[in-house]
Write a structure and sequence with these properties.
Length: about 160
Amino acid sequence: MEKVSTAVQLLDEAKADIIRSRDSLGKNAKQLKAVRRQLTHIIKMVCPEPVGKLWDNQEYSLVCRVDATYCLPTVTFYVAGLDSFKDERLVSMLWYLSTLDGEREAKSEDYAQSLNRTYRFQFDGFVIRVDATVKSDSPTCRKVVISSELVKQDKYAIQCD
């Protein structure tokens, strides 16, 4: 049996990787197709048309994005320019998503550095995320320092003899 060169092995591994990716993308496309009707309904109810500009944190905006490339189909609603996390538009959206097909608890995570909170709703076959950001000059929400740390970090240079 003839030994296969390293170059041929590397190319064969790259080809196998592409085939795995193709198969995974095909599976994800089938998952998206299976929940398309449900996602269409949710998007039409929550964000039928984009409002404002994505990442404009001074004016209210609501933009939607759908991704199914490397994960379960996921719809993310980006809501920015809020005065607080108690904003009626956000509260209504969260209520709608939590009662869509029964009672559902949202998991949330705060990103205090950017006055952002992400809510995550797990459904059968897909995920809905609401990425909410409060204005930096919000009258009710602000970043507060809860601790600080001093980190010693070495810097390096290359030195050759």
